[in-house]
Structure formats: C-alpha cells, structure tokens
Amino acid sequence: MDKKARLHFSWGVVGMILFFAFFVITEAGAQQKVVKLSMGTGGTGGVFYVMGAGIATILTKYMPNTEVTVEVTGGSVDNCKLLKSQKADLGLSGADICTDAINGIEKFGKGAPEDKIPLRALGSIYTNHMHFITHKDSPIQSVSDVRGKRVSTGSPGSGTEVKTTKILDAFGIHVDKDIKRERLGANESVNAFKDRKLDVIGWDGGIPTGAILDLATTPGISIKILNCAESIPQLEKKYPGGYYPTVIPKGTYPGIDYDVQSVGHTNLFVTLDKMDPQLAYMITKTLYNHINPDLIAVHKEAAKITLKTITTGSPIPFHPGAVKFYAEHGIQVK
C-alpha cells in the first residue's frame, strides 16, 4: 500500500471511530434522558406535603431515569389548578375537590367547558378527617359555639378552606358573616393559636397531622377537638357522596382521651387524562410496589393502603394506565 493509500485508509478508520463514538454517545444520551415531573402537595405542616414527598422519593428512587420534585402549595384546589395550567404533572387532592374540578364548579368556575379540568385518578391514598380544635379551657363545647369567634378556616387554595366552609354552613354559620375569619395554613394556624390569637383552628387532614401534634405537645397548651359528624346529613343533601363519618381515635393526639366523631373524605393521587398511559402505569405500579416499607416509613396512614382501598372512593375516572395495573391484579376500575 503506497503512502497516499495509507493516508486515505487512516482517515477512513478515524472517520469510522468518530462515527461509532458519536452513535454510542447519542444512544447513551437517549437512554439516560431523565423524565422530570412536578407534584403538587400542600403546606409543610400538613400530611399532603409529607405523603407527597414520600411518593416523590419512591418514584425518583425506583423508576429509571425519573425525577419527581415536590411543590409546596395551598392544597387540593391549588393542585388541580396547577395541573390544568401544566405547572404540575401529579398532585394530591381531596375527592370532594376533584369532583368540583372535573365539573368546573365552585372554586373552578361555573361549569363551562373551559372550566372543567380533565383529572384522572391513579389511586386513593388515605382519608382526611376534619378537626375543629380549641383550647381545653374554652367555653366552646360544640361547632355551633364558634359563632363570633376567631377561626382559621384554612389557607386560600386549600381543601381545608372548602370543607371547613361547608361544615360551618351546615351548622348555620357563614364564614364571612358569623365568625372572625383567618385564612391560615396548618403551621400558621398553630402559631397563632399558641399566641392566643385564635379561638378555633379548622383543619382537614390525615391523622396524625404533624402541626397538630406539635400543638398538642407544646408546654402550657391543652387542646380539645370538637365533634362535627352531626353535620353529615346536611352535607349529604348538598354534596351527595362526598363525605362520610370518620373517627379520630382517642390517643391520636396527646390529651385527646376520647374518640372524636368527625367528617371524612378520600384523598386521591391524580394527574390529567393526557398523561402517557405507559408512564401512568409505571407510576402506579412503582408506588404500589413500594408502599411497604417505603411509604409507611413516611406516614403510618400508608399502612392502611391495600388493593381494595387504593381503588375505592374515587368519584372521578381512573387513568387508563392505572386501570391496566389494577386489572393485572384482578380489580376492575373505571
């Protein structure tokens, strides 16, 4: 082989090496492309944030090339709106709020097509219990007694605000006329209560809620939680199927040595209908397969999740990806 031929051969070899190197690098980059998802939760003092962070950690840890970040939000209402505006891909929201969102009513509009949010459920996660908390030495003995009092009804954009308003209304109390209203999240409510700037905290959350535990264990502070289940017949008339009786068991919080008769609803893990079915399938599968021990380690309410509970209590349709996963386990959902 003469010198010129050798030169051409050498450049040809270099070209082939560069081509294959580019191909390998390109393929590796394609294989390692990270899917980034954002998840709406709630305030840092509530269970939405804790449970949401646990879910995000599981998905990030066990789904290849997936990164889920948690957003601190006002709660259920905000999370549905963030999904609609495509500022979130996943979220937690109360079933009652999801019903309003999918119908485009109440906090979401007047029922026009553009008001409706096409939410889809991935699973039912846990139950929210309504808390009406007051000082143990307060003369307030029932929810009816909060008229004229300083009451936190929950932060704007939260499911707590919606549910507190509905329950007070069932007792004949209008939040804008009959109480001295504060719109505070869990941590802010607790701090104001400690400073005796609030008479009552309205809070709707899983049990135990961290911020309420903090309050109940604060030296010099003693609390009581009011029964509110008597509002359910009135709620059922206006919001059929949305709420049901629950109990906050005695001992859930220090100083609460009696069962509290409360109002509950199911919390849903949601996305939009347009999420890729395979992605929704993998999210559902990964979460369910790692509830025990990963999610239980985050919050003990997760120990109650079974195939039956995770597929029960959703008033909105399940995402096709979730439907596929549950069908593989012999459970048909719609």
Describe the structure.
- With 334 residues, the chain is an alpha/beta fold.
- It folds into two domains: 34-127 and 266-328, Periplasmic binding protein-like II (D-Maltodextrin-Binding Protein, domain 2), CATH 3.40.190; 134-265, D-Maltodextrin-Binding Protein, domain 2 (3-Layer(aba) Sandwich).
- It is built from twelve helices and ten strands.
- Strands 1, 2, 3, 4, 5, 6, 7, 8, 9 and 10 form a ten-stranded mixed β-sheet that branches.
- Strand 1 (35-40), helix 2 (47-62) and strand 2 form a beta-alpha-beta unit.
- Helix 6 (186-194) runs parallel beside helix 7 (210-216) and helix 9 (277-289) crosses helix 12.
- The chain is globular.
- Residues 3-30 have low confidence and may be disordered.
Task: Give the tags.
334 residues, alpha/beta, D-Maltodextrin-Binding Protein, domain 2, globular, disordered N terminus
Concise summary:
The protein is of the alpha/beta class and 334 residues long. The protein has helices at residues 3-31, 47-62, 76-84, 95-103, 159-170, 186-194, 210-216, 232-238, 277-289, 291-298, 307-310, 320-328, and strands at 35-40, 66-71, 90-94, 119-135, 150-152, 180-182, 200-205, 223-225, 244-248, 260-272.
